[in-house]
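Hi C.,

You asked whether I'd gotten around to modeling the 356-residue construct. I have! Everything is below, sequence then structure, no commentary in between.
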Amino acid sequence: MRKAAVACGVIGLVLMICGGLLAWWITPSYIARLPGNYNKTRTYDGTIHALFNPAALATGDLAAAIRTNLPATLTDNVKVLQTSGNSALVQDTRVIKASGSPVATTVQHYSLDRTTLEATASHPSSWVVTPAKGLTVSWPLGAKKQTYTGWVPLTETTTPVRYVGESSQGGITTYEYRASVPPTRIRNTQVLAALPKSLPTSLVPRLVAAGVISPSEAASLATAFPGATSIPLGYTYQASNTYFVAPATGLVVNVANNETETGGILMPTGAITPVIPVLSDSYHASPASLSAAVSDANSGSSTITAWGVAVPIAAAALGFLLVLLAIFLWLRKRSRGKPVDVDHGQRHPSPAGHVT
């Protein structure tokens, strides 16, 4: 009986400790974080409202320089390449296609904290990453109703991403966040490499005739760049984006994004005078991508709930019952082993030998 009590007590205490560790250490530290084998591709449908063709502009064919209202798709692949402790090397590949043909591609590498999903400087020195800040590819597990800092890859700056409410997407409740980026100079070298760096001054009269720039603006260019055969160009990016996030997993299940890249004259002061739209588009998750994202969110939420809540509660409850059983068995053993004095009415001789 005593051995059974000790065994129940030890097993019960172990189960209670394991339940606590699962809930407060193992699940947050090892389960509720970015997996080392994460590899997901999301597809977004949209419209390219304006698309710049540098080759047509170089030949002076202004009619073909801007294409409008093109069906578009955007694919975004996020893949973990390596992990080191709580840091992950993540590759984010985005491809925009217009009428099925690629028009823009960027590949970014980030070092992310696997729990907060924020960019981190804590990573092996061999990793070559963008020195980003804030959120880059997703929200953390257990997203909160608060303002986050988001990374803008084209401008290499940050912007507030504000929580604005809840929204139903694909049959699940999501948190809705919004980010606005005012016209900001593009500094992403991959994007700039695909765009012309200057504009021949011989094209200025054609831009005036086409109504792209006004005669007064053309005159100011002649003053700012006297005798120049070409005018330096600069580019800006602005956006008004909405993200719908599954709070338990931090997965972005849908977006409603509106983005514009604009080319302009890079003035000697460093200011950019807008001239022509380079890429203006809007997009949202395709039905298939939305369905896949919702499925991933539900699966991830179930896993976190199971290991972070259900299993710890069951282990702690069973452990508590075993401890109670151990106490009961221990007390019962003691009561059985205690001597009991029973008087059957017999007379006993006194120490002196007299009958009492």
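If it helps when you're writing up: Residues 1-31+302-335 form one domain.

Thanks,
B.
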